[in-house]
Amino acid sequence: MTVYIMGDFPSALKFELGIYVDQFVRWAKLNFDGFFELIKKVSLALLLNVEKLLLLIPWWLFIALVFILGWRIKNWKTGLLYSATIFLIGTFGLWEELMTTLALVISAVIISLIIGIPAGILTAYSNKLEMILKPILDAMQTMPSFVYLIPAIMLFSLGLVPAVFATTIYAIPPVLRLTNLAIRSVPKEMKEAALSFGSSRWQTLFKVELPQALPTIMTGINQTIMMAISMVVTTSMVGARGLGLNVIKSINQIDIAMGFEAGISIVIMAVILDRITQGMAEKFRYPESSE
Amino acid sequence: MPTKIRVENLYKIFGRNTKEALRLLEQGKSKDEILKITGSAIGVNNASFEVKEGETFVIMGLSGSGKSTLIRCLNLLNKPTKGSIFVDGEDILKYDKNQLKKFRQDKMAMVFQSFGLFTHRTIQSNVEYGLEIKKVPKDERRKIAEEAIKSVGLEGWENSLPHQLSGGMQQRVGLARALANDPDILLMDEPFSALDPLIRREMQLELLDLQAKLKKTIIFITHDVNEAFKIGDRVAVMKDGEIVQIGTPEEILENPSNQYIEDFVRDIDRSKVFQAKHIMQKTTAIMSVKDGLNVAMREMRSNGLSSLFVVGENRKLEGIVTIDDTINAIKEKKSLKDILKNDYFTADPEDYVQDLIPKAAVTNYPIAVIGEDGTFLGIIVRVSVLSGLA
Fold first, then answer.
1. pLDDT tier, A291 (very low <50, low <70, confident <90, very high otherwise)
2. DSSP sequence for A212-237
3. What's the mean pLDDT in A171-177?
4. How far is Cα B274 from Cα A55, in angstroms, rounded to an integer?
5. Which is higher by pLDDT, B246 or A18?
6. Distance (Å) from the C-alpha of residue A52 to the closest C-alpha of chain B?
7. Which residues does B contribute to its contact with A (CB < 8 Å)?
8. Which of A45, A142, A212, B389 has the fewest CB atoms nearer than 10 Å to its CB?
9. pLDDT by residue (tens digit) across B38-69?
C-alpha cells in the first residue's frame, strides 16, 4: 500500500464540472431548439448576403474604395499605400478568400454591435447590471479564443454559423465596455442641463449622451473589429472558409509559401481596417471645452 | 408681489436608508452621527422659504452646505425625501412624468457652474436646445435663439463650438440658452464661480441689468458673500443642510442671527452693500430760500452746524450757506442769494457708499442726497462715510 504524503492529488476527490456543462448545453439545445435555429438562420443569411455583396463588387472598384477611404482619413499617399497592399493580396490569388474572411468579420461585427451597444447603454444606466457583467466580461476577455469554439460546436455543430457565433461572442466585450464607459463619462452637468429643459430619457440619450459618447464608442467598434479579425484563423478549425483556412491548411501541409501569403494577407487586412476605423473615430472626436 | 415659489419643510437625504435617517434627524442627531449609523448623507435639512415673483433670491453657503442640492430639488433633478414645493400654488412633487417634463420646459431653466454646454453642438444649437425639446418650429426657434444670443452680446459666434469661447462667453451661452426658453424662474447654480474675478464682476453687473429688464424670478446660488449681497434682494444662508437665516443683505449684516453668519459676513466689504439711503440722515436742519439770513443764523446756531442746505419749492435743493458767510453777510447787509454756494456734492439714494468715499474725502460740507425728481432727501455727514460705516 502506498502512503500519500505530498504526492498526487487524491483521485477520490472528483468533481466532474465538465459533465454538468455538457448536460446543460444538451438540455438548452433540446428545449430551446427553435431559438438556436433562429440564430442559425439569421446569422447564416447575414453572412452569405454580405459575402455575396462583397464578391459582387468588381476588384478594381473595391481597391478604388480603399484608396478613397485612406485618402479621406489621412492623405492620398495613405490611400495609395492601402490600395496597393490590397492589390498585392489579389496577386497572391487570394481575392476570393479575402472577401470571404471580410464577410465573416463584417457579419460578426454587425451582430456584436447590435448586441453590444444597447447592452453597453443599459449597463451604463444600471450599477447592478454593471456589477454582474463586469466579471463576465473580464472572464470573456481573458479566456483563450479557442475555448469559444467548444460551445459554438456544441450548439451549432460545424460550419459557418459556429464560426460567426464564436467570433461574435469573442468580439462583443470591447464595444460593450467602451459604450458603458462613454455613457457614464458624459459630464453630469451636461445630462442635468438636458433634463432641466424637460428632455425625456430618449431625448437625453439621443441628443446628448450618444453624441458625446460617440468618439469613445468608435474606439470600441475599432477594437471589436480587431478582436473579430483575431478569430479568423481559429474559427477556420470549425468550418470557416477564407484566409484562415489557408493558414490552417498550410500548417497541416507544412506549406510555408501558402502560409506566408495567407498570413500576410490577414495582417494587411487587419492593419487597414484598424487604421480606417481609428481614423473615423478621430473624426468624431469633439474638442474638449477649454475650461 | 405674489409668492412664486414656496418650499415647506424640505428634506433631501442621499443613501439607501432614508426613513431611518429621517427618524434620527427628528431625534436631533447630527449630520455626522447619522452618516455613521445609517450611511445616509443629509443634503437638505428642513428647509422652508418663499420666493416672490420678480425677486432675486440668493442661497449662500460654503461648499457642502447643501445649497446645490437644494436648488436641484426645485426642478426635481434631485427628488426630495420629504416636504413640499409649491410653484404658482401647485405642488410639483405631485406631478407625474409628463407634467414634470412640461413644467421643466415652460417654467424653469437652469444655468450651471461649469456651464453644462453641449460640446458637440454649435452655440446656436445649444441655445435652441430647450426650444427643440418643446418642439418649436425650426424657423421660429432660430429667430428666438438669435435674439437670445444677441441679448447676451454674442452675435457673430452662432456657428462656433463652445470650446472656441472663453469661460465668460461660455456662461453667456448658458444664460442665453436658459433665457431662450423664456422661463418664469431662472435657477443659477454658482454661475459665476468658475470665472475669473474681473469677468465675474462684469457678469454680475450684466445680470443685474438683464434682471432690471426681464424681471424674472431668480434663485441664485453662491458661496461668495459679496456676490450674494450685491445680487440678492433677499439672501438665505445655509449651513449643514439647514437654512440658518433669511433676510435682506442689510438685515443679515446688521443682525447676524448667530456666530456662523457673523463669521461669514465678517470679511464683507460693507461699503459695497450699504447705499447712500442707509447712512443718510433725514435732517430737519434745512431752510427755505424764501427765509432770510437771520433764520439761517438761528438754524445753524441751534443745531450746532457750520453750514446749512437751502431748498426751494418742492424741497428742491438750491444751494448751501456757511456760518462765516452768513455772519459777514449780515454785517454787510447782503441777501441770502448773494452768499449761496454750489460747491457741494450730491448723491443718489441708490449709490453705494464705496462710491461716495472720494467725494467725502475732498468736500467741506455734508453730501446732499437727492431723489430722482430732484427733491432733497437728507444729508450724509463725511464722518459716517469715512469712519468705516459702523
1. very low
2. HHHHHHHHHHHHHHHHHHHTHHHHGG
3. 93
4. 83
5. B246
6. 38
7. 72, 75, 77, 100-106, 108-110, 112-120, 129-130, 132-134, 161-163, 165-167, 170, 177, 181, 187, 194
8. A142
9. 888 888 988 999 999 999 999 998 888 889 99
β-bridge pairing B307-311 and B286-288: parallel
Q: Which residues in chain A are contacts of B162 at CB distance < 8 A?
A: 289
pLDDT in tens, B253-311: 888 888 877 777 776 667 777 778 778 887 777 888 888 888 888 888 888 888 888 88
Beta strand ranges found along chain A (DSSP E): none
Handedness of CA A89, A95, A99, A105 (dihedral sign): negative
* Nearest of A257, A264, A263, A226 to residue A244 by alpha carbon: A263
Minimal Cα distance from B187: which residue of A? A196
State the nearest Cα–Cα gap between A289 and chain B, in angstroms: 4
How would DSSP label each residue in B129-149?
A: HHHHHTT--HHHHHHHHHHHH
Taking alpha carbons only, the member of A222, A220, A232 closest to residue A102 is A232
Render A83-115 in DSSP notation, one character per residue: HHHHHHHHHTT-HHHHHHHHHHHHHHHHHHHHH
CA distances from B255 to A48, B225, B246, B258, B261 (A): 82, 15, 11, 9, 9
Q: Domains of chain B by range and CATH?
A: 3-107+183-268 (3.40.50.300), 277-386 (3.10.580.10)
CA B65/CA B241 separation, integer angstroms: 5
- For residue B221, the cross-strand partners are B59, B189
In this predicted structure, what is the pLDDT of residue A8? Answer: 77
Residues with Cβ within 8 Å of A16's Cβ and at least 6 positions away in sequence, in order, are none
Q: Number of A:B CB contacts under 8 A?
A: 88
Write out pLDDT tens, residues A103-115: 999 999 999 999 9
Give residue A290's pLDDT: 38
In contact, B129 and B118? CB cutoff 8 Å: yes
Grid cell, residue A276, equals: 480606417
**Closest Cα partner for B132 from B75, B192, B177?**
B177
Rounded Cα distance between B158 and B161, Å, is 8
Q: How many helices (H) and strands (E) does chain A have?
A: 14, 0
Distance from CA of A238 to the nearest CA of B (A): 45
B104: chain A residues, CB-CB within 8 Å: 195-198
Cβ separation B77–A196 shorter than 8 A: yes
pLDDT in tens, A57-107: 888 899 999 999 888 888 888 889 999 999 988 888 888 888 989 999 999
- Alpha helices, DSSP H only, in B342-381? 353-362
- The model carries a pTM of 0.76
CB–CB of B317/B377 below 8 Å? no
ipTM tops 0.85: no
Cα A251 to Cα A265: distance, rounded to the nearest angstrom? 16
Element (H, E) at B310: strand B307-311
Residue with the three cell numbers 479564443: A145
CA–CA separation, A244 and A235 (whole Å)? 8
Please count the CA atoms within 13 angstroms of the CA of B198 that sit on its side-chain side.
Answer: 0
Taken in order of first residue, the domains within chain A and their CATH numbers are: 55-91 (no CATH), 95-284 (1.10.3720.10)
Strands of the sheet containing B286-288, edge to edge, are: B286-288, B307-311, B317-322
- Buried b / exposed e over B34-59, threshold 16 CB at 10 Å, is bbeebebbbbbbbbebebeebbbbbb
Q: What are phi and psi of A12, to 5 degrees?
A: -70, -30
Bridge partner residues of B113 (DSSP): none
* Nearest in space to A193 (alpha carbons), one of B312, B187, B362: B187
- List CB contacts (< 8 A) between A194 and chain B: 118, 129
